[in-house]
Amino acid sequence: MVNKKVLFVLVLVLALSSLLAACGKKETTSSPAPSTETAATPAASTEATAAPSTDPVASLSGKKIALLIQLSLGTFSAQYIDGVKEQVEKLGGTVQVFTAENDMAKMASNLDAAINQKFDGILIDHGTTAALEPGAKIALEKKIPIVSFDSELSLPDITALEQGDQKMAEQTLTQLGKDIGGKGSIVKIWVAGFAPMERRQIAYKAFIDSNPDIKEIAAFGAATNNTALDTQAQMEAILKKYPKKGDITAVWAAWDEFAKGAARAIQQAGRDEIKVYGIDLSDEDLQMIQDPKSPWIASAAVDPKDIGRVQVRFLYQKLHGDETPAKVVLDPIFVSRDQLPTTQVSTVDLGQHVKGWGGSEQGYTDWLKQLEQLSAKK
């Protein structure tokens, strides 16, 4: 009887032990709930890490930009480069300038160097299709975006900037025609082989064709490492060839370096009856136009710093993945001496006297402005 009671107790203990063991397993299996929350934390963290890739600062700050220049000459080029550097730095990037000194083989080599050094984006100033197209195709294949300025280079994925060259030529030629009363003898200073020059020539030919009483008596021009000085020497020779007052009514110069050289030659010769009309405008040019003794009295231009700024904005749009136009035409402004005060002004404050000058908003998106603000805080 006692043995049966003992046996009964042992069976009961074993049953209770099994039950407790089962309960223990249930508590253990229910514990993964917290671990599921813990697992969710890395997922959220991964999502949080991925999010900044869409943030302009995370994706675009610190970009390395290459600026390839065919010929850096005079204050116009200096101010253009300043505009590029200013805008890139505001966006948190850095710029390296490669100057070819008018050597197309060197410019092509500079493009190859920019690709091999893995710059994030490339800006091109002037340059020919023959020299640049092979390298540009490689850059585009490697997903390095390109924005050009006044270049012959033309490929589907490149955004090309130009100054509205025909309009600039029309503005200066129209004023020249009015000032000389629609008749006279003029000298043209121009050079072939540059895309902007070719566009300006279209307007010049139309002007000559529609003004039969205005005659071109001389034409010359060459882009050299000392363009203004060489132009001055050539203009001095033209003045000797036409020594009498009235032989030359006016000079039309298709580039500010040409206008500077011609104006100096005319002023030194005392031929104050001859007036000069130019294209492009820098601080140095503006000083000459404001000088009442200078024969250079008017020019049409885009603020060179604005050109650099706008070019950079469209490059960053490409880096951001935005759709950009194939061509961007910058609006030129006509500037004449009679618009200006007697006190010296610079291109920085020229907008106070000439409506529309400087401060272009072209290519300025809201996210670019945001990127500038965020980069400024770093």
Automatic annotation (TrEMBL):
Matching SUPFAM superfamilies: Periplasmic binding protein-like I
Compartments where located: Cell envelope
Signal peptide range: 1-21
InterPro entries membership: Bact_Solute-Bind_Prot2, Peripla_BP_I, SBP_2_dom
Domain of life of the source: Bacteria
Positions of the Periplasmic binding protein domain: 69-322
Ranges of biased composition (kind: Low complexity): 29-54
Major subcellular location class: other
CDD domains, per database record: PBP1_methylthioribose_binding-like
Pfam families: Peripla_BP_4
Annotated PROSITE patterns: PROKAR_LIPOPROTEIN
GO (cellular component) term, any one: outer membrane-bounded periplasmic space
Gene3D superfamilies: 3.40.50.2300
Molecular functions per Gene Ontology: carbohydrate binding
Region named Disordered: 26-57
Keywords annotated in UniProt: Signal
Family per similarity comment: Belongs to the bacterial solute-binding protein 2 family.
PANTHER family xrefs: ABC TRANSPORTER PERIPLASMIC-BINDING PROTEIN YPHF, D-XYLOSE-BINDING PERIPLASMIC PROTEIN
Protein name per Swiss-Prot or TrEMBL: Sugar ABC transporter substrate-binding protein
